[in-house]
Design brief:
7 helices
Length: about 160
């Protein structure tokens, strides 16, 4: 950031207070506006929320949130907008005029790569080793012999 320049960040999705505090600690030159209540009310047809959102967007330089929380007519309402950070991996649902425009768009691509891989491993082992059956036997305090599958030498296609 340029020295002493303030950056107007508009958050369009609900975030926990802890996340808002983390953003605040990053740099005191970041002016953050939690606009998700305005977005919600505007989408419900509240004209006052729409007017307030217009004034917030007029100053917005950065938008952060889920794609489906972006406000209506974003480009015409946010003339100073330079950057959109979406919380999802994909951006293909953004309107064409935003994708083809001069605004920098970044995403959270790769954020789920390790967790989803671990989850797939967990499910494979749970199914092969019949975890649900083992849990039920534990609850019943009745252990019965069974033969779980072995994953060794099997092929997995993803």
């Amino acid at each position: 950031m340029m020295k002493n320049k303030r950056v107007n960040l508009v958050i369009v999705s609900p975030l926990p207070e802890e996340a808002m505090e983390q953003i605040a600690r990053l740099d005191d030159r970041v002016e953050r506006v939690q606009a998700s209540p305005l977005i919600r009310d505007e989408k419900k047809g509240d004209p006052q929320a729409g007017n307030k959102m217009d004034s917030v967007l007029a100053e917005a330089e950065v938008l952060y949130g889920w794609i489906w929380h972006l406000p209506f007519n974003l480009l015409s309402r946010a003339p100073r907008l330079k950057w959109i950070q979406v919380m999802s991996a994909g951006v293909d649902r953004l309107p064409k005029e935003i994708l083809q425009g001069p605004i920098t768009i970044t995403n959270a691509g790769g954020v789920h790569a390790v967790p989803i891989g671990e989850f797939v491993m967990y499910l494979m082992l749970s199914l092969a080793k019949q975890a649900a059956r083992c849990f039920a036997m534990k609850q019943e305090k009745a252990w019965k012999r069974f033969r779980p599958a072995v994953l060794h030498s099997h092929t997995l296609g993803v």
